[in-house]
Amino acid sequence: MGTVVALVMIASACGSADAGQGDGNQNTVLSGEASSATTLASGEPTDAEDREPTSAAAPTTAPGTTGPSTTEATSTTTTSSPITSTTAPTTVPTTAVPFDGPASCSAAVGATTFDLDVGGVVHDVRIFLPDGISDDASLPVVLNFHGFGQSGIEQAIFSDYERTAAREGFIVVHPTGVPAPGNFDNAWELLEQDFADRDDAAMVESLITIIADNYCGDRSRVYATGFSNGGYFTSRLVCQLSDTIAAAVSVGALTHPDNCEPSRAVPYMAFHGTNDNVVAFDGGATPNAGDLINQVIPDEFAEFAADYECDTDAVESRVTDEVIRYDYVGCVDEVPLVFFEIVGGGHTWPGSPSGPLVTGQLGATTTDVSATDDGWAFLSQFSLPE
Predict the structure, then answer these.
(1) For the chain, what is the domain count?
(2) pLDDT for 215-274, tens place per residue?
(3) String of b and e for 345-377 (b: at least 16 CB within 10 Å)?
(4) Cα–Cα nearest to 245, from 350, 82, 379, 46
(5) Which of 323, 190, 343 is CA-nearest to residue 276?
(6) ∠ CA 93-125-221, rounded to 5°
(7) Would 386 be classed as within a structural domain?
(8) At 316, is the pLDDT very low, low, confident or very high (cuts 50, 70, 90)?
(9) Dihedral of CA 241/292/352/322: which sign?
(10) DSSP string, 50-118
(11) Strands 171-175 and 323-328
């Protein structure tokens, strides 16, 4: 248990992980394959060197409660393009422009982007709908949150989630966070933090409403996943939006805050590398974060098991030489809690095609499990109770 006041990011090497070549239309699925330029869903290449640089600087915002609950949302829909950092305003506007969504779900197939305004804070959102969707469809939705200093497009590339969504027939959404007060890097607001000008949980609720009302999303099958700062944020959603999020997967970071009070037991899975050089597996200082983050990750996960009244000791099984699985059993409503220890793994996304590109800065990436494919297989089993 403890307070995460400083959230550290996926390094700039991950930001330069390139997408595969597009075919010139908005239906292109992002690929994690390396190339000399990033091809977005619009098919327009963007040189990797033009990407927004990332930073290891950490926010210093003191912990607190969640922020204001203004939830009006506005948006305009555009075809996919590079997502840039958005600075949070110092005052919260009270006027919102009505959301102008797509004409139909079938008209939004492929990857598109829109701006989501919640309480005056504007988030860039990338949404991907699979081919063959009908206008009366009701599809599961994965919300995929990026790491500190990153963007939705970079998380889409790093996790390669759109390829899985295209194959399995679900919606995946990659929103972009905004900088914390006094910082220039995109980040997500955690349960311990209180940003006076925004409430990221309210943003998620507004985003879900837009997806359900305009993109054929199924409210009973909305899932959260995220990496690093996004993994922490996923923990917040498990704690705070347990009646909204059907299941969740954290990668490369998770936390159980003192004020975590889920109203129901949420199926939860996590992946973490023992050689993580940003968020240490066993707590303590790391080369990239110093001693800013000092939580023992397996212990944080075990606190969710305590909340769910699971058996104290997890059932351990060796999946491969690089992967050890821990299952908590005997939980309330037989809800599963699964933790994957990646032996020798770095601050990475297991199974990421971009893994080899970030080894020098972030450490090794296992391919024995996939936080995307195995994560989706876990998430897709669950829906909210009626």
Answers:
(1) 1
(2) 999 999 999 999 999 999 999 999 999 999 999 999 999 999 888 999 999 999 999 999
(3) bbbbbbbbbbbebbeebbbbbbebbbbbbbbbe
(4) 379
(5) 343
(6) 110
(7) no
(8) very high
(9) negative
(10) GSPPP------PPB------------BEEE-------PPPSS-----PPPB--S-SGGG-EEEEEEEEE
(11) unpaired
Query: What is the spatial distance between Cα 208 and Cα 359, in angstroms, rounded to a whole number?
Result: 35
Q: In sequence order, what DSSP letters do the residues of 106-122 get, joined into one string?
A: GGG-EEEEEEEEETTEE
Q: Kindly state whether residue 166 falls inside one of the protein's structural domains.
A: yes
0.85 cut: is pTM over it? Answer: no
Give the amino acid at 85. Answer: S
Q: Is 162 helix (H, G, I), strand (E, B) or coil?
A: helix
Find the domain containing 204 and state its range. Answer: 12-63+71-379
CB burial of 213-228 (b: ≥16 within 10 Å; e: otherwise) equals ebbbbbbebbbbbbbb
Q: How far is CA 125 from the centre of its chain?
A: 12
- Domain assignment present for residue 2? The answer is no
Residues in the chain: 386
β-pairing, 268-273 vs 247-251, is parallel
Burial pattern 42-58, b for ≥16 Cβ within 10 A else e, equals: bbebbebeebbebebeb
* Cα 236 → chain centroid: 11
The tokens describing 135, both together, are: 């206008």
* 372 belongs to a structural domain: yes
Round to whole Å and give the CA distance between 18 and 315. Answer: 38
Which pair of tokens denotes residue 1?
């248990």
Position 228, amino acid: S
Q: What are the pLDDT digits (tens) for 56-110?
A: 333 322 222 222 233 344 444 444 432 222 333 333 332 234 577 898 999 999 9
CATH of the domain at 137: 3.40.50.1820
Sign of CA dihedral 269, 361, 354, 81: positive
Please name the residue ranges forming H helices in 270-371. Answer: 297-307, 355-362
Q: What is the DSSP letter of 332?
A: G
